[in-house]
Write a structure and sequence with these properties.
single chain, alpha+beta, Transferase, Pyrimidine Nucleoside Phosphorylase, Chain A, domain 3, Pyrimidine Nucleoside Phosphorylase, Chain A, domain 2, Aldehyde Oxidoreductase, domain 3, 3 domains, 4-stranded antiparallel sheet, 16 helices, 44% helix, globular, Pyrmidine_PPase_CS, Pyrimidine-nucleoside phosphorylase, Pyrmidine_PPas_bac/euk, Nuc_phospho_transferase, EC 2.4.2.2
């Protein structure tokens, strides 16, 4: 078997076999197939696409290129949740303990943030003492004991994906749905989940800017899950403005805690309930979504989800008192008010621009080795559809000092707000759901 023959076949629109894709991925991982041949293959896939069976074969080949996590010692059906990335997305901090309080084990590996999107691990590390690294035995024991553990990605999960993504990034082949889908799902499958719920973002703050493209990506990932024996569902959610009001690590933890107290923003609460309902159904703890939703709302009302959060924090070395007193979290010493540049109604908020603005304050990473400041960030005072008056505060910057850098970010936040004369309505938060049965728009 030769790489050139596989490239030729895909270039001409042929379907690749499991053996061909395994040969290609394993050979590339071992350094036997050079970058220039993998670049040619990726470009052929970019133009010719892949069918669902091919994409599943590719996903498994990448998953098998490194470590596979064995979660079989954990009792019950393990359901993982993955977001394609957004601004203000702190759902894992809420969903983990919420779903665990309903009896579904959550054994989750999460990543750090890069660019305009925040990482769950960075957010959790803003809680003093919280450990994001656990030995495998301790990780499994914690899930069996209290039902939830969230740690940083350990071992060498899907190394072929890391190598291939770096190549795609410099060869203009990132925007290929089969390659994106296999990249996401290879890591989820290697992480050992029995079932997977996906939160696919769409809009200005998302990787996929249109609903049609987001649905195509979701459909490809659900098809992969189905092909490899993992029950998978995907919700398409709006990212045309940030989720909730907080952007930045400790600020987002504070908002997550407010949500677990039942006092969170409506959009954040709604999305968490929707995603968690699917997880509870796939985890076998509810017969249908309506039953799951009722159970989840009761766990929030009764305080059981909050109690699970405190147990989770304590088990990983943090101070559970943060669940009742978020003032224990890091706080920036200076608040800078961002005034509305004109009167009117908020028509749009460029979520990606606000994510980049928070990164410039120090809340995110411009490069992988950047050091982040857990205390800084942005809280919004106005969102789409609300009326504002010129000079009224539309956002607060949480900063170390009010200097030139803070003022530059202030102007960037102002520019991210589109304010018009006519009243406006925000886009619906939940746009569609994709399952093995197909796509349903709400």
């Amino acid at each position: 078997m030769r790489a050139v023959d596989i490239i030729h076949k895909k270039r001409n629109g042929g379907s690749l076999t499991n053996e061909e894709l395994s040969f290609l991925i394993q050979g590339y991982s071992r350094g036997e197939i050079p970058d220039y041949q993998m670049s040619a293959w990726a470009m052929a896939v970019y133009f010719q696409g892949m069918n669902p069976e091919e994409t599943a074969f590719l996903t498994l080949a990448m998953a098998e290129s490194g470590d596979r996590v064995d979660l079989s010692p954990i009792r019950g059906i393990k359901v993982d949740k993955h977001s394609t990335g957004g601004v203000g997305d702190k759902t894992s901090l809420i969903i983990g303990p919420l779903v665990a309080s309903c009896g579904v084990p959550v054994a989750k590996m999460s990543g750090r943030g890069l660019g305009h999107t925040g990482g769950t691990i960075d957010k959790m590390e803003s809680m003093p003492g919280f450990r994001t690294e656990l030995a495998r035995e301790d990780f499994i024991a914690q899930v069996n004991d209290i039902g939830v553990a969230i740690i940083g990605q350990s071992g060498d999960l899907a190394p072929a994906d890391k190598k291939l993504y770096a190549l795609r990034d410099v060869t203009a082949t990132v925007e290929s749905i089969p390659l994106i889908a296999s990249s996401v799902m290879s890591k989820k499958i290697a992480a050992g989940a029995d079932a997977i719920v996906l939160d696919v973002k769409t809009g200005s703050g998302a990787f996929m800017k249109t609903l049609d493209d987001s649905e195509r990506l979701a459909k490809a990932m659900v098809e992969i899950g189905t092909q490899v024996g993992r029950r998978t569902a995907a919700l398409i959610s709006d990212m045309d403005q940030p989720l909730g009001f907080a952007i930045g690590n400790a600020l987002e933890v504070r908002e997550a805690i407010q949500t677990l107290h039942g006092r969170g923003p409506d959009d954040l609460t709604e999305l968490c309930i929707a995603l968690a309902s699917h997880m509870v159904v796939l985890g076998g703890q509810a017969a249908n979504l309506k039953e799951a939703e009722a159970a989840l709302r009761e766990k929030l009302r009764s305080g059981e989800a909050l109690a699970k959060f405190k147990a989770f924090v304590a088990a990983q070395g943090g101070d559970p008192a943060v669940g009742d007193d978020p003032a224990l979290l890091p706080q920036a010493p200076v608040l800078v008010e961002v005034p509305a540049p004109k009167s009117g109604h908020v028509h749009a908020i460029q979520a990606e621009e606000l994510g980049l603005a928070a990164m410039l304050l120090g809340a995110g990473r411009a490069m992988k080795d950047s050091v982040i400041d857990h205390a800084v960030g942005i809280t919004l005072r106005r969102k789409v559809g609300e009326e504002v008056r010129e000079g009224e505060t539309i956002a607060l910057l949480h900063v170390r000092e009010d200097g030139d850098a803070a003022q530059a970010v202030l102007r960037r936040v102002q520019d991210a707000y589109a304010i018009g004369d006519e009243p406006a309505q925000p886009s619906p938060l939940l746009l569609s759901i994709v399952t093995e049965q197909g796509v349903t728009r709400f």
